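pinging the channel bc i need a second pair of eyes. not urgent but kinda urgent?? the chain im working w is below, pasted from the shared doc
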Amino acid sequence: MAQAAQIEPSRPLPVAPAEAVRMAVRTTAVDAVGLEERAASLAKRSIKRDAKLWALDLAIRSMDLTTLEGSDTVGKIVAICAKAVRPNPLDPSIPPVAAVCLYPQLVPVALEQLEGTGVNVASVAGGFPSGLGPLGARLQEIRDVAATGAHEIDIVLNRSLFLGGRYAQAFEELVAAREAAGAAHLKVILETGELGSYDRVRQASMLAMAAGADFIKTSTGKIGTNATLPVALCMLEAARDFHRETGRPIGIKVAGGVRAAKQAIQYLVLVHETLGADWMTPDRFRIGASSLLNDVLMQIEKERTGRYAGPDYFTID
């Protein structure tokens, strides 16, 4: 079987600090009413059966199957890796997910289980979920995870610096994290539920992209407010504008609270209508989820047969 897909980072040279701060600070104010109305309108868009089956298939292929609990065990990781490769053991037509996302200590277990499957191993690092703590320790954790062999690393923006207006320092931390990640794909979590406004979401998006992030991600899933359609649209529009200005394609990951197939399809519609067909791929769009997969499997069964399979039909892990 093929080796795990090594996603090559876009490797943009980080924008100079002064330019990065300029890109963040000069962003035009977001029309909140217009943004929310557009997100709501796109969310209501209906799609035909064949397109829905395609979207459900893409949702699985774009999924980071995630477990980030203090109670995670080796046995749980083994089970999740098996589900990542064969989401429905009785149906080989169902594709594997994009990646399994977990804590650093369990990366070696996942790498062993997923070797040769095409499913990547993603690890949180850098002081997840707060993004605080001594910078040296945070960077060393990123280096350690990269050295272990993780294909992707999810870190968190230092909101303390960002919300305090210390944009240059926040940018420099992200640049250092990008360097520490080495060949691994770097996703920067904005924790949008703590940023307070769409203007801040756009500014943080621009700063992270200018620092060399391969993906920008909505949330850690560890606070009360996670991904929402308007926030995701705000980030998608920032990625669109950044691509137009720099030529660098940046991926988007939505995470936290995405539990239903209907939600996944709504996000896919937003991606298609904002960034186009080139972003309709796991290389540029991801959904971080722990409980979404089974609902997508049930929806596929319903579309194919006209009836729902009960939740007990599919494995939990």
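so The beta strands are 63-66, 99-102, 120-124, 152-156, 185-189, 215-217, 251-255, 285-289. and The radius of gyration is 19 Å. — does that match what u expected or am i reading it wrong
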